[in-house]
């Protein structure tokens, strides 16, 4: 309670209200809050590395501070950013402001003119609002890549987003020309603590496959859009497909064997229960590119699908 009070007092004390000197407009965020925000923000603090900071960097906007993670040695990093954007705390002027919750005092010390946070972030929104106009975004309300739309609107980078979209449209057309995805079924299976974690649309990988026109198992389609669900390991065969994808965390120094081990721990001899695995059509890829809201990631996944599937004499799952 004492630390909470000191954080509030510190935030109020350092508030220099740079946004008040700027032209402002109203914005209704995903928490239903109406916020007065600067029309052209200059000093942005982003409180989710993967959902907000990486998209901002891809839009050409460098936040002054960002949420991040830390290694076992306590070194902060922006999850997935180094492989997706080439930018991290150690090679940019972006300042680390903590993880979960973010450090309100560290945020205040940067004197932002806008703070972007998420429904996932546990730093108190009222404390943040005392520092600078605070916008809450929720990618369970907005499809993850729709975050780009609101971020480009907030930062005036619609032209940059249009270029990213044009490149992606061309990549999807390449898949359709080379694979005929409507005749190929696909699925993404992630095993966590003995259960299966399944998303209706698994991040960037799911978006590419859905936009291209791949088909999915009925159990996947039954999950609501933008949502996920957990299933018992015994249901694994219901998520079988022509091609099954699994992922592993390179930022945690995992390897493809970790993904296999997780599936094996959930369902011993799992490969016997999956047509895709028996036919060498289980494809294991890094989770950073597969799950991030990143146009670079979309491009990587486009070429991965083309290289793995186009021209390949694969064995279809019996219908």
Describe the protein's topology.
Elements: H1 2-14, E1 24-28, E2 34-38, E3 44-46, H2 49-58, E4 65-66, E5 69-70, E6 76-77, H3 81-84, E7 95-96, H4 104-109, E8 114-118, H5 125-131, E9 134-137, H6 147-155, H7 158-179, E10 186-188, E11 190-192, E12 195-199, H8 203-212, H9 218-221, E13 228-232, E14 243-248, H10 256-266, H11 275-278, E15 282-286, H12 287-291, H13 295-309
Parallel strand pairs: 3-4, 3-8, 4-7, 8-9, 10-14, 14-15
Antiparallel strand pairs: 1-2, 5-6, 11-12, 12-13
What does this molecule look like?
The protein has 319 residues and is of the alpha/beta class. The protein folds into 2 domains: 2-157, Nitrogenase molybdenum iron protein domain (Rossmann fold), CATH 3.40.50; 182-305, 3-Layer(aba) Sandwich (Rossmann fold), CATH 3.40.50. 38% of the residues lie in helices and 18% in strands. The chain is built from 13 helices and 15 strands. The chain has helices at residues 2-14, 49-58, 81-84, 104-109, 125-131, 147-155, 158-179, 203-212, 218-221, 256-266, 275-278, 287-291, 295-309, and strands spanning 24-28, 34-38, 44-46, 65-66, 69-70, 76-77, 95-96, 114-118, 134-137, 186-188, 190-192, 195-199, 228-232, 243-248, 282-286. The strands form 5 sheets. Strands 7-4-3-8-9 form a 5-stranded parallel sheet. The protein has a 3-stranded parallel sheet with strand order 10-14-15. β3, α2 (49-58) and β4 form a beta-alpha-beta unit. The longest helix has 22 residues, at 158-179.
Key traits:
319 residues; alpha/beta; Rossmann fold; 5-stranded parallel beta sheet; 3-stranded parallel beta sheet; 13 helices; 15 strands; globular; ion transport; transport
């Amino acid at each position: 309670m004492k630390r909470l009070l000191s954080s509030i007092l510190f935030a109020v004390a350092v508030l220099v209200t740079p946004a008040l000197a700027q032209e402002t407009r109203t914005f209704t965020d995903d928490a239903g809050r109406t916020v007065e925000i600067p029309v052209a923000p200059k000093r942005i603090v982003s409180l989710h590395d993967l959902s907000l900071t990486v998209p901002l960097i891809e839009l050409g906007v460098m936040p002054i501070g960002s949420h991040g993670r830390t290694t076992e040695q306590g070194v902060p990093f922006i999850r997935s950013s180094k492989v997706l954007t080439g930018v991290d705390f150690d090679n940019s002027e972006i300042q680390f402001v903590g993880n979960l919750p973010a450090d309100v005092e560290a945020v205040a010390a940067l004197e932002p003119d806008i703070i972007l946070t998420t429904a996932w972030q546990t730093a108190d929104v009222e404390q943040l609002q005392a520092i600078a106009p605070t916008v809450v975004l929720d990618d369970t309300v907005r499809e993850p890549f729709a975050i780009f739309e609101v971020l480009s609107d907030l930062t005036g980078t619609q032209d940059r987003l249009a270029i990213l979209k044009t490149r992606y449209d061309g990549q999807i057309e390449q898949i359709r020309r080379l694979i005929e995805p409507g005749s190929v079924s696909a699925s993404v299976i992630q095993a966590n603590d003995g259960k299966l974690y399944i998303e209706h649309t698994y991040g960037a990988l799911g978006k590419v496959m859905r936009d291209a026109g791949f088909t999915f198992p009925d159990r996947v389609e039954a999950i609501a859009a933008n949502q996920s669900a957990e299933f018992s390991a015994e249901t694994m065969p219901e998520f079988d497909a022509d091609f099954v994808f699994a992922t592993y965390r390179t930022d945690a120094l995992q390897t493809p064997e970790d993904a296999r081990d997780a599936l094996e721990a959930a369902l011993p001899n799992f490969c016997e229960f999956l047509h895709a695995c028996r036919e060498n059509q289980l494809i294991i890829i890094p989770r950073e590119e597969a799950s991030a809201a990143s146009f670079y990631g979309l491009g990587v996944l486009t070429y991965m699908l083309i290289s793995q599937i186009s021209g390949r004499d694969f064995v279809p799952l019996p219908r």
